[in-house]
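Protocol step 4 of 5: obtain the predicted structure for the target chain.
Materials: sequence only (see below). No template structures provided, no constraints applied. The aim of this step is simply to have a reference model before the mutagenesis design in step 5. Sequence pasted as it appears in the construct record:
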Amino acid sequence: MNINQVYQKDNLELLSEIKSEIIDLIYIDPPFYTGVDYSEFNDKWDSMNAYLQFMEIRIREMHRVLKKTGSFYLHCDRNAVFELKLTCDRIFGKENFKNDIIWNVGSVSGFKSQVKGWVRQHDIILYYTKSDHYTFNKQYLPYNEKYVKKMFRYRDENGRLYRKRRGGKQYLDENPGTPLGDVWNDIFSFQTATRAKEYVGYPTQKPQKLLERIILASSNEKDLIADFFCGSGTTLVVAKKFNRNFIGCDVNPNAVELSRVRLKEI
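Step 4 output (structure tokens):
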């Protein structure tokens, strides 16, 4: 098994070839329990038990190859989140569950808006670590221009903006912004951002900004990132962009070819 490669094979087969505790960060966007037959893959299952058996054996292997300092992100939706949470609690330990991140996908229009009841508007990302010693680089949303003009109204002899605080000055260049919480409202899915330049039309493609946030928070340069359901390759593209190593895998030959093309374009 070589790094910085995309493999076309069952991820369980690839996982069996990987040594224990060598990966720093795993993000997966696996098949959801939706019952939908997409053009690129089939998301239909015989039962919830069949789906959970498929997922559990793979998550156990991912836990094995993850470093003790590593992090694991599982992207899912309401159809199986509670069952997957219990599965991950058993494998990682409930004490290593850190957050359920709510990603507001931004769109309440189209066919799904006709549903009787509340319109689905978010995905869930379950975030686990393997131990209490893990990489995390706090992420911030930059202050908007109006806020800066209102709050940082003073300028020192060197031209640095600051605001007055009890006990001294607080400089703008020493405050990166507002710390991010576990509800993400600022990144739109391609249901909303249909004209985004990065969109290649893959049915479950995720925005690069979403993966940038996860990768920058839970890894450092030269770390090894893995996505065992890599789809259109967004995780791998972002890993390469930010000087991380990567491993990608998908059973769909079209997805693997698309990932390789996108990686070559960087």
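Step 4 remarks: The two ends are 23 Å apart (CA to CA). The CA atoms of residues 55 and 237 lie 25 Å apart.
Proceed to step 5.
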